[in-house]
TrEMBL record:
Encoding gene per record: dprA
SUPFAM superfamilies according to UniProt: MCP/YpsA-like, RuvA domain 2-like
GO biological process: DNA-mediated transformation
Keyword Signal among record annotations: yes
Domain (Smf/DprA SLOG): residue spans on this chain: 83-295
This protein's name: DNA-protecting protein DprA
TM ranges: none
Organism the protein comes from: Ideonella livida
Signal peptide: 1-20
Keywords tagged on the record: Signal
Domain DprA winged helix: 308-366
Family, similarity comment: Belongs to the DprA/Smf family.
Statement: the UniProt record of this protein carries the keyword Signal: yes
Amino acid sequence: MTPATLLAWLRLLGAPSVGAATARRLVQALGSAEAALQAPEATLLELAGPAATRGLRATQEDLGTRLKRIQQWLDGAPTQRHVLGWDEATYPELLRQSPDAPPLLFAQGALPALATPCLAIVGSRRCTPAGKETAHRFAKALSEAGITIVSGLALGIDAAAHEGALAGQATGGAPTIAVVGTGLDRVYPARHKPLAHQIAADGLLLSELPPGAPPLAPHFPRRNRIIAGLSLGTLVVEADLQSGSLITARLALEANRDVMAIPGSIHNPQSRGCHQLIKQGALLVEDPAEVLDNLGWSGRAPDVARSTAPAMDAAPPAAQDLLQWVGHDPVDLDTLCLRSGRPAAELLVELLTLELEGHLCRHEDGRVVRAG
């Protein structure tokens, strides 16, 4: 995008009474942001109404400041940073079709990722270890099959999905796209700075917010519509009933995209959102191959389609009974003592061994669950 075109977009979007929908309508009808600004008053009145027409003729005192900040950000890495207009060929086509598509997108990284088939993987920030492992495994396998993984760089499932996709890309798979709720000169949460830098280097960071935009609460639900709009479908791994990932799933349905969900334990609050989606018609999936089948994807098959958790028969014979007592629902030490009739000190040693060998996952509250 040239500086002149960027200035025209900023002026168009910054005009009083001109929102994103009006801006898109003017550009679609007149051909460009520059043409919309130069259109006769009668044309603007017909297309946008009197309030927007007055707004387009008003002076914007902060226009130069906004342009300068964006240009400085672009100049910091001119081959990696981009501004995409809704009317440009580089703008992702699936997102352009969305009724609330952002007029401008700020991008850092490999733009070709936007032209690849994408799948959103989303879920709870407060995920279980098993949920995190599942998100990583699915993302890696789907990346290896040629699907670009889109998520929101949040804690929990989002981060696991990005990391799994990066692992898949390292073996020749597709990249990952992180859609964020800040300007691209900031990283939220801050602990994800290394992850964001890796995505910028190997995949793509994307935002509708200009450089300098802080992590305000309203930004994140709006970010979800971009995640859904970019993607052929949305896969929800773990989500409670209040999770923002259910917003992404709803937006995907409204855009006539596929919604899939992974079931979990009825005792896990983080599975209730997935179960609700399944009741409402989302496709229940248990392995990445089912996701590919649902998308009708004919690309290469993933190297790993099913669970990579250690097989139960790989555990020492003495530990196999303990794995049976643990089961697939999180369980605490006292319950295991009651189930097995064995002393806590003895169980602690075996539980630690099984955890180190990858047969168990441990929750933050100390409960354990079978891996996979």
